[in-house]
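Cross-check.
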Amino acid sequence: MQNIILKVNNISKGYKKINNPLLDFFFKVKNSKITQENFYWALKNITFEVYKGESIGIIGKNGAGKSTLLSILAGVLIPTSGTVDIKERVTALLELGSGFNPILTGYDNALLNGILLGLTKSEILSRMNEIEDFADIGTFMHKPISTYSSGMVVRLAFAVQIICKPQILIIDEALSVGDFFFQQKCLKHIQKLKDEGLTLIFVSHDMNTVRDFCQRVIFLKNSQIEFIGNSSDGIQKYYLNENKQSNCNKDTNINMVHNLLWKSSLSDINKINSRLISVSICDENETPKLDFKIGDLMIIFITFYNAEPYLLHPSVEIINKYDQLVTSTGSSRIQIPKIKNFKEKSITLKLSIQMMIEAGKYSIIVRLGKHISANMGENVDFTNPLGPININWNYETCEAPFHGMVGLKCAGQYLNIDE
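Predicted model, tokenized:
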């Protein structure tokens, strides 16, 4: 039998529509009884249960009541009616860093927040090295929060909350902040906590993340539960209900980049060993670009210096936001003409990849290696994760060319039928 860890029983949250003190006074004098029509209901009659170790997503368009519901579960808001029964400690990632004292250092704020989360001083001190490593803000850990950028505040706040090993973790779009590579790091750690039995309640407009992280979803519409059940079914119902205007023929959030996405910091190539020199990512017209639609052709120019008596091979790894390898390809895996004069020369490989992967953000790692056997190589040089590469698709109104993580090239025909 599944263990219920959180139970929401018929909760509603309302706000009076009139908030002008003078009009409010007049309103009370004229109408001593407040009626349902005089309230704006952010939530109405919400009932559901969450089981221990379950991941449940809450979806819906802006204004549906998602953040209000999470705030009630976190204890930030009190419902107008109904009850919430929570059996274990809740950690909520709502407005990251909002509780930090700007005068105190990051270290002191981390210590104070850990204690507020229910840990003893010795427990939080024993995890402080993990917090510092995860936040990765260097010497700023010992400087006042008032000297931080907004991104540094997010890093530290997330690190404190996540390293303190929550029992129930509530996330309200917190993973949409910070840089992409930090998001990868966060998602990977949350997945680890999930594998260890974390109960997760997750709000996001990123339906791919909801689908991959959550077994069930609650679809809120007009402040009420429209659907509760299997994630795939709930997401499909959400898309069918939204009926938004199609944007599938437009490239969105186009980020034009410099001619080179990455360039080696070593200027005198001829005085060093074999290594990568530069990387550029372009569209099919060889225009620098980081935004594509599913199925678009992405062209990567990789320039490297070959100082060996044998030809080295550049390759590209595509990494998703969970830090998983989606696919890799390179010169040793594709049929391209061999070159003869390669020693002590700068060589550029033009690599064309049809992006038949699901919509989302990806990073790429470019490697330069020595080919050893059919499935083995030896690294000579490699880049840090580059990007992010954005793959776009409007799933709400445009039929996708495939469903899942990747699209496979396939063909078929009917057999044994009369024409």
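The CA atoms of residues 57 and 202 lie 5 Å apart. The radius of gyration is 26 Å. Passed to J.P. for a second look.
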